[in-house]
């Protein structure tokens, strides 16, 4: 089967995030399908950008064909990012006949973050007689309305809402990473039978290939120093943004300044300078802010921790559920997880692999750390293994990739 996966932000091992299209495509290729990922030449989430000569540019990675459509660079969430969205969507629509004839897809997947690519994707699917799948990572424009406090009557929001509603009506199947998103989608024109919940997952092959020695020297030295001081090690890995609520983790470190606990925040993001300054102002020597690491190094680093942390802001938006990649990596590392959240789902509570606490509560974070530190190593190991067993059963990409294409 020929699969065309359209996601402007799609990345790869060579370019970096977003990696869900890459992981799904790799599994599909493994079982004999041909996969073409159509993406924009620039996306802020990638570590590196492709450098095509212009027009439709192709390259291959791990048996996956990538097609790059030209778009402008941008920073932040301003006008240039909107132009980038429109450039990609217009290029897809303008080149639809050429793309359809060249790649002859049997399945066309139009994947958010934004819904504007649905128009070109629907035309390509119609021309080739392909099944049309709309994959929803985040509920746009609802995310902009509820988290970004934008007016639903803003012209751009109204245009985005029109595109989203169009996608729900036209798609043969709607795949969402959010387990309870169908409640919202039905109100916007989706027939209930179209809905499939398909969360993020883990690539078991990656974990089997983890080798020792990949963690950078700075990270190894910090871990070794904290262990030499007899500290109980907690790590957060990933983006340092407002949505990650890391100011509360730093406040928890302040609460535990006299306890033998070490906090490692690994990654980057717009809030990192402010977080570092906050730690300095409070005179905290138990918090280390470290650069991001490669995926292979990250997997090794996680296994050296005592407990892992992920937190969220308190937002009504999360009533439809969450599906964070980092949480499934945490669980695969077989370490207890502290999960600060109020949402429509909670894999930590469902699996029994850690402690769930209210979001935005430093005292609750500190108490959860103390509770886990008081446990025996055997108890923590058993708790961590429950998470690993859960994620292997519910979030194995081999199984998720097969479910994605079910009934196609």
From TrEMBL:
A Pfam family it matches: Glyco_trans_1_4
GO molecular-function term, one example from the UniProt record: transferase activity
Keyword annotations from UniProtKB, A to Z: Transferase
Residue stretches spanning the membrane: none
Domain Glycosyltransferase subfamily 4-like N-terminal: 16-201
CDD domains given in the database record: GT4_WbuB-like
SUPFAM superfamilies attached to this UniProt entry: UDP-Glycosyltransferase/glycogen phosphorylase
Domain of life: Bacteria
Protein name as annotated: Glycosyltransferase WbuB
């Amino acid at each position: 089967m020929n699969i065309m996966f359209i996601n402007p932000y799609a990345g790869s091992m060579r370019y970096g995030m977003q990696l869900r299209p890459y992981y799904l495509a790799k599994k599909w290729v493994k079982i004999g399908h041909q996969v073409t990922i159509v993406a924009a030449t620039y996306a802020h989430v990638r570590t590196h950008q492709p450098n095509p000569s212009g027009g439709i540019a192709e390259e291959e990675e791990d048996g996956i064909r990538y097609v790059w459509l030209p778009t402008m660079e941008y920073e932040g969430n301003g006008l240039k990012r909107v132009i980038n969205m429109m450039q990609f969507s217009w290029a897809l629509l303008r080149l639809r006949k050429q793309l359809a004839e060249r790649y002859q897809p049997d399945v066309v997947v139009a994947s958010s973050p934004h819904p504007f690519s649905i128009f070109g994707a629907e035309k390509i699917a119609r021309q080739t007689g392909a099944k049309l799948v709309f994959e929803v990572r985040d509920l746009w424009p609802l995310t902009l309305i509820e988290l970004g406090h934008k007016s639903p009557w803003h012209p751009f929001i109204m245009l985005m809402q029109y595109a989203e509603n169009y996608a729900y009506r036209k798609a043969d199947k709607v795949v969402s990473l959010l387990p309870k998103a169908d409640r919202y989608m039905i109100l916007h024109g989706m027939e209930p039978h179209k809905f499939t919940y398909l969360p993020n997952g883990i690539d078991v092959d990656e974990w089997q290939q983890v080798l020792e020695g990949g963690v950078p020297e700075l990270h190894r030295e910090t871990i070794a120093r904290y262990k030499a001081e007899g500290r109980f090690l907690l790590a957060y890995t990933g983006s340092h943004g407002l949505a990650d609520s890391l100011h509360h983790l730093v406040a928890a470190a302040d609460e535990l300044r006299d306890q033998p606990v070490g906090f490692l925040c690994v990654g980057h993001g717009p809030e990192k300078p402010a977080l570092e300054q906050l730690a300095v102002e409070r005179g905290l020597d138990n918090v280390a802010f470290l650069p991001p690491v490669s995926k292979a190094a990250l997997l090794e680093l996680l296994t050296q921790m005592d407990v892992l942390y992920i937190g969220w802001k308190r937002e009504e938006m999360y009533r439809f559920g969450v599906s964070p990649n980092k949480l499934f990596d945490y669980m695969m590392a077989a370490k207890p997880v502290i999960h600060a959240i109020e949402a429509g789902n909670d894999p930590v509570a469902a699996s029994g692999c850690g402690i769930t606490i209210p979001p935005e509560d430093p005292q609750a974070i500190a108490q959860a750390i103390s509770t886990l530190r008081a446990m025996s190593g055997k108890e923590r190991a058993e708790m961590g293994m429950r998470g690993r067993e859960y994620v292997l059963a519910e979030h194995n990409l081999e199984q998720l990739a097969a479910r994605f294409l079910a009934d196609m």
